[in-house]
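Input.
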Amino acid sequence: MAKDQDKTPSGGNKPKPANAPSGQSAKDRSRAQSRPVSGKPPAGKAAKAGGGGKGNTPRPGRVPAPQPAPRRISGAMMAWGAVGLVVIIIAVLVIVRVTSSTSTATASYTPVTPAPASVVQEVTNIPLAVYDKVGISSPQIPVTPPIVLSNQPPLSLKGKSPAMLYVGAEYCPFCAAERWAMTAALSRFGAWSNLKITASSHTDYAPETHTFSYHGATLTSPYLTFASVEELSNVPTASGSYEPLESPTKEEAKVISTFNDPKYITGATVGQVSYPFINIGNKALISGASYNPNVLANLTWNQIASGLSDPTNPVTQAIVTTANYITAAICASTTGAPSSVCTSSGVEAAAKALKLG
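Output.
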């Protein structure tokens, strides 16, 4: 379902890793990267074993010189030699195993683990003063506003309205960036449980971007229903893709097919979704990243989260600006509830910019 095409930093993502010189499409880069290493031996002649019948022979008429009798090795020396050989073999095996497992764990993917309480606390409790101070001002890091929808019925999922739908993948760097703002915005309407942390693909654009995973996470809210679909993990497969996680329900698939259309999203291809795809109550759409995930490069979860209390931090400004836009769209779908959030100056600035009633 994910769109397999090269995207700019503000666009969506592909279900295959990409890490090759510019000029190639993401599809070609991912194919080249996922090609298995050839198992053929190096070019050249293979070494011959056993002499091949052409060993050296003594010259005729010459008697070989007598050889000294071999020295006898004591039983004690043989025993100690055997013990030493066993120790060396065991040491080599241990080193190979440790090196191999460490390389796989660090170079292949970042495991999904429970989010630290401190990180969750900081991202879900950004001070109101920070939201209002930043508003929609992110001078150093450009932020793309959501696509505003008009004349649409309220989005309903599982018989509940209003609703919000997110579709993405753990490997996706654009989703990784968007989840910081989305997690913060949604926390203004309810409480998260079972949030996880992970990182995007180690071989895609903006590799190893630290983020959350919504696989298994839930938002409990009296204001809206939030549904998330992490379609793919960040665990690479032999085919060059990623292990599957979740699939949209029929109801969710209908929402995707309806709004993933060029008449709503410029450049969209029907049947191929650019990650992340977000429908906020049929009031606004987000397709691709709101800001460049590269701005999170080399930042840990703790560093990103702890910076969210500083309205002068450029990364915080990008995250909070995006969060205010998302919040304004949610407020439009909840008819202004809760008022303490929807009437805040940062959210009102975003609503005015989006021309939401």
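Confidence is low (pLDDT under 50) at residues 3-10, 14-66, 94-106.
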